[in-house]
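REQUEST ID: PR-0412
SUBMITTED BY: lab tech R.K.
PRIORITY: routine
TASK: structure prediction, single protein chain
INPUT:
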Amino acid sequence: MPEYQSLYRKYRSQTFADLVGQDASSRALQGAIISGRVSHAYLFSGSRGTGKTSAARLLAKALNCTGRPRSSAEPCNKCDSCLEMMAGASLDLIEIDAASNRGIDDVRDLREKVNLAPARGPYKVYIIDEAHGLTGDAFNALLKTLEEPPPHAVFVMCTTDAQKMPLTVIGRCQHFVFRRHGEDQIVSRLTHIAAAEKVSVDDDAMRLIARTAQGSMRDAVGLLDQLVPLASGPITLESARSLLGIADPRMLDGLLDHVLSGEASEALAELNGVYAAGAELRQVVRGLMEGCRDRLLAALNKHDLAGARRLSAVLDALLHLDGEVRRHAEPRFLVEATLARLAVELGTPTVISEPSPPPDALRASTSPASGEVKPSPPPDALRASTSPASGEVKPVSGWSEVLEKLNRTVRAVYLDAQPEVDGSTLILWFRYGFHHKKAQEQSPQLIPLVREWLGEATKIEYRLRESEGTKPAARPASPEDDPFVREVVRRFDGRVTRVKEVSE
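STATUS: complete
OUTPUT:
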């Protein structure tokens, strides 16, 4: 019985035309091959399953292909060199797994053998997979070889974490970033493979596989490979969801509704139903994240800021939960506890108490009709106008909206201000001298907003409020306070030492 070959190995890209979703990198590599401007070292970085190693093998095949026309970069896949590389038996293609061969001794062995001439073709290509796994000493030992390798050697380093690569290594390589695949690209490739394998797959099931793969073509083909044994009939969405452990989106929507409505017990009951249906918990959390994200975008489009804040908080908790589920010993309890906590928090009403105005914030005003003393409106009740007929004080809101438009630092200065409008003048009363002084310094930022509120002719006066109890007692004027004496003292930088009364 012949050995079964998994689909992702069977349908690995064998030409640059098959390299899905990496058009920019593919064109650059083909141009370098055709023009003979092949670099001595390349760095291919990107997330898993995006075609980094496949592109490195294509580069090796094209460089050593004897049946390739000079005007084309595509390997012929028929010559002895191509067939050996496709079978993994070529002596001119050396693949090194840096995750297990990561030490300085492994690199020294590579440096000793790199000078050996190629066995068949003009180039010997070294593919170092997961290159970020090399130790610091191994990278240092490789630097000189990377910078000045033998003319026949080409290094291709592939990594899923380019941040861990030393800058000294990156600077010696041509760096190509491989992008994640879009869902449409994955569906197109899966449709091609399903047709070649004579397997019928529903479009919805294809979409589910593409979404679950999260941009990895290899993962998507691997998931399709899991579904092929079900091919006695068409592979439906339900069968795909059951095999992959993905919950019904309608159940996840109901679960998210209970959480957002603060219904903790109903949410836990729904979660138990999802779990009993065979859904994998990590897929449940990811489904909740997708649903919460979609609702957050809808809330932002509707300018529903309150709803957006709630959804953003829930999404943040789910993102944290997604990272913890993989490592936790009891993931089910962790998910239940998190969803119950979110439901309880969202179901608890938030009471916002309005602070009462300070005693000295009430300004006495006398009604012309009755002589009755009436307190002025609180600070955020803002503009007051007196009706000639009744003498009523009518507050007009708007000051709090002006404060909201200021940046946080400037707003803190004006929170102490108690506004009063007198005709075309806005009077701001302050209790503290520090705020009174800082507010005048920040007036250029306030004036445009006030004029937008009250009109272009509006002026602002800054006044410091002094209560009767804190007013200093009047004292008789002293000779030192005389303006003429102060000016003389200032000009001659002197001081008054003695005051002598002189008779006329």
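NOTES: The chain has four domains: 7-178, 183-244, 249-347, 379-464.
REVIEWED BY: pending
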